[in-house]
Design brief:
By secondary structure, the protein is α/β, with parallel strands linked by helices. Strands 1, 2, 12, 13, 14, 15, 16, 17, 18 and 19 form a ten-stranded mixed beta sheet that branches. The chain has a seven-stranded mixed beta sheet with strand order 4-3-11-6-7-8-10. Keywords: Coiled coil, Membrane, Transmembrane, Transmembrane helix.
């Protein structure tokens, strides 16, 4: 019986191998026809191959982008709202139209249902789908509904003497913002429900250092309401610091002193009449401990199905907080008798009433099946907004939709990707990265096995400078792709040059800043939907945006009614050039990841970055003597990574030589090897190799070619597991949701990424046993990954 079973399994494995690799024999036959001139000529191949990327890049349109921006930012669409649901269905419709998918009634599925599970899992299953598909997954996280938010000044008898107008004022000159001024209260997601009374204490930015300075100066915060300005650290950090210092509530405001030169004080008209910040603008946002775990607060580590068991959240704080405007903050300080003093003379009442209950959110998904069934490129943007969200996230959604349009145009030429492409429009990001996190927790095993990379976009355009974030293994792809994209506004320059652009006062060629210390590719943290992919699942990831970062830039009305289509047209991205630049870069990276024979993931770059990470930790904590053994493990990983990159190149050459034999020049025309190490896409019209990956009609295959392809596939798999090798089942101390020990959210800043987070916290604690333990954990991971790369 066992012998028969082994024989059955052997025959099954052989059939599976034939199904996957028969394409290579057929490709060889067709190439032979081509060489004999029966089908086409080598010059035709070369011409067609060089057409695909220019054709793809020609599709994104500023006019279409403008239309999408106007449509999606017309009305507020907060997480779980009716308008949010409408836009989820609208994105589904656009996915279907652009990718040639027939609309069906059965395309909206409760998460966890067989239909929802199959929609994702069938992309890589044996009976996988062969045509593009689109659907919506519906999750049910705990969401807040604001009921009452008030800030009042009280007299000695507890009677209200002044009540703040917390709503943004709006101006008819910006119709959308004006009509939305009363639609979304100014409040914080997952802030505690309650009413508190106390004197007001100014705490600057509300950082740990700010509170320590106040306590050192003898200021008692117990029973007080803290007043903090936005900036420096994430909102939840401010609330946690206030709570830890004894405060009973917190108010946050946007301080125009942080707006640089473009202010009313410097003669600029106030928006919507000019570029200066409107003083009634309010930054809404989440205010819980996102850095403990993101996603649904009641289902940490598992998906928020409608019938999911719920837990008491451990990342929600106990004191209420409310955001207010600069204008309201000034009036509050005056009415409470706080000017020229850090503590008010009068009592202040803060009221924050919210209801919290499970509610539906909608992740809209679409996929283009590739020839190789077990490698998937994922890209996405969230769709929900705090109010209108023309920049955050509509600009990102617009760029994503332009990418989908470009891929739809390619499909209509007969092209099909080598790897599967999964497009995602996440929901409830503004509530704490909820939609993407729930999907990642739902399909974590599947993503860990099949995802090549995750490419994120959130805010495409809200200023002049291009900021790019990514894992080091993607750095070559990011940079070289950016160097192939024109600068959005300056002729003769590339998108890569836009990393140095500065404020609107320097429009034209002078906008280019050639300072040698300008930032390149930055470390990813916790700021958007890449978090679950990188920080929990170890999948290479990137993010990008245009944003104002200097004193010359126009202030951006973040999470305000003034983040509107009008602001975007006049100040954020006039002409929508930057929307299109991001779309082209995002799309071309996706195309190269999907269609390159050898995955453009560079393990050697990733390993080299570890040296810099360790140096930064050593410098910060003066710990070089303790960490030399860790640097030795890094060196061994670097050697193994360099060997992998050499093997990838050799396997590519071997594959070409095996197929083409004595005509490598013809092979390069088909597969497009470049000196940079990146590989151009297959010809969209004649990509024969890929077209036969899933063929099962023939009954024989060429062993030599099969072995050549297995060698390529093995090299690609090792590239994919490189970033997975940094995961620990134990996770970060006191934050086990985060599994990545190489990069994680900074515990004192909240959003930003920090290298070796567990080790850094151990060094900060001064506990030598803890330092030794975390060093050993890292060494075990690095040594284990070294072995895997060499296996």
């Amino acid at each position: 019986m066992r012998t028969e079973k082994r024989q059955e399994n052997y025959e099954k494995d052989q059939r599976h191998l034939r199904d996957r690799f028969l394409c290579l024999t057929v490709g060889l036959i067709i190439i032979g026809f081509c060489l004999s001139g029966l089908l086409t000529t080598s010059s035709d191949f070369a011409n067609r191959r060089t057409e695909i990327e220019p054709f793809f890049l020609s599709i994104p349109s500023r006019d279409t982008a403008r239309d999408f921006s106007k449509e999606f930012s017309k009305m507020p669409h907060t997480p779980g709202s009716p308008r949010d649901a409408t836009l989820a269905k609208r994105v589904l419709q656009l996915f279907q139209e652009e990718l040639g998918i027939s609309p069906t009634a059965a395309s909206i599925f409760p998460a966890g249902s067989p239909e929802s599970r199959n929609a994702t899992l069938r992309l890589t299953a044996k009976d996988r789908v062969s045509q593009p598909t689109a659907w919506i997954d519906v999750y049910y996280p705990d969401l807040d509904t604001p009921k009452q938010q008030d800030v009042e000044v009280l007299d000695q008898y507890g009677q209200t003497t002044w009540a703040a107008n917390l709503n943004e004022e709006g101006d008819p000159l910006d119709e959308d913002a004006y009509h939305s001024r009363n639609d979304v209260p100014t409040w914080h997601y997952y802030s505690a429900d309650g009413m508190v009374e106390g004197k007001l204490v100014y705490v600057n930015y509300g950082t740990k250092q700010d509170f320590e300075a106040l306590l050192s100066a003898g200021v008692n915060l117990t029973g007080k309401i803290a007043l903090a300005r936005y900036g420096e650290v994430y909102r939840g950090i401010k609330v946690e610091n206030a709570q830890s210092s004894g405060a009973i509530g917190l108010l946050m405001y946007t301080d125009i002193r942080d707006d640089g030169r473009v202010t009313a004080q410097n003669g600029y008209a106030i928006y919507p009449h000019g570029p200066a910040r409107n003083p009634s603008s309010v930054q809404r946002g989440s205010a819980h401990m996102l850095y403990i775990y993101p996603g649904d607060i009641s289902t940490p580590g598992y998906p928020a199905y409608q019938n999911a068991s719920r837990q008491e959240p451990s990342n929600v704080l106990s004191i209420p907080s409310i955001p207010i405007s600069w204008k309201t903050a000034q009036a509050l300080m005056e009415e409470s008798g706080m000017f020229n003093d850090s503590i008010s003379r009068k009592l202040v009442r803060l009221i924050n009433r919210v209801d919290r209950a499970p509610a539906p959110i909608w992740n809209t998904m679409a996929a283009i099946p590739g020839h190789i069934k077990d490698e998937v490129v994922v890209l996405g943007c969230h769709r929900d907004a705090w109010v209108l969200g023309a920049a955050d996230p509509v600009s990102g959604t617009v760029s994503l939709l332009e990418v989908v349009r470009a891929f739809g145009a390619l499909l209509r030429t007969g092209w099909k990707p080598l790897r599967t492409i999964l497009f995602t429009s996440w929901d409830a990001e503004e509530a704490g990265l909820v939609g993407s996190t729930e999907y990642g927790e739902d399909f974590g095993e599947w993503l860990s096995r099949y995802a090549v990379a995750y490419l994120n976009v959130d805010i495409s355009a809200a200023g002049p400078r291009w900021l790019i974030y990514g894992t080091p293994s993607l750095s070559d792809l990011i940079q070289r792709t950016a160097q192939d994209i024109p600068h959005p506004t300056v002729k003769g320059k590339t998108l890569w040059d836009a990393r140095h652009d500065r404020g609107f006062e320097y429009d034209s060629v002078e906008a280019l800043d050639s300072r040698p210390n300008a930032t390149d590719i930055q470390m990813l943290g916790l700021g958007s939907d890449h978090a679950v992919f990188l920080l929990r699942l170890g999948i290479a990831a990137s993010d990008q945006m245009f944003k104002g970062v200097t004193e010359f830039d126009i202030p951006y009305h973040y999470h305000s009614i003034y983040d509107s289509h009008r602001w975007m047209q006049i100040y954020g991205d006039p002409g929508f050039h930057r929307h299109i630049a991001v779309a082209r870069h995002l799309g071309l990276m996706t195309l190269r990841l999907a269609d390159s024979l050898i995955l453009p993931l560079n393990a050697s770059r990733g390993a080299s970055a570890l040296d810099n990470y360790l140096t930064s930790v050593e410098t910060k904590f003066n710990a070089s003597r303790n960490l030399h053994v860790l640097r030795q493990s890094i060196a061994r990983l670097q050697a193994a990574s360099a060997e992998l990159e050499e093997e990838k190149n050799e396997s590519r050459l071997n594959f070409f030589d095996t197929i083409v034999g004595k005509s490598p020049s013809f092979s390069s025309r088909i597969f497009g090897a470049t000196s940079s190490g990146l590989y151009r896409p297959y010809n969209p019209y004649s990509g024969w190799l890929g077209q036969f990956v899933s063929q099962t009609s023939l009954k024989w295959f060429e062993e030599e070619i099969r072995q050549a392809y297995i060698r390529v596939a093995n090299a690609n798999k090792k590239s994919m597991i490189f970033d997975r090798g940094f995961l620990s089942d134990e996770g970060l101390p006191e934050r086990p949701w985060f599994k990545n020990l190489i990069v994680g959210p900074d515990r004192e800043q909240g959003y930003e990424g920090t290298p070796f987070p567990a080790l850094a916290e151990a060094l900060q604690s001064g506990n030598s046993n803890r330092v030794e333990y975390e060093t050993q954990r890292l060494m075990n991971l690095l040594e284990g990954l070294t072995v895997k790369l060499r296996s």
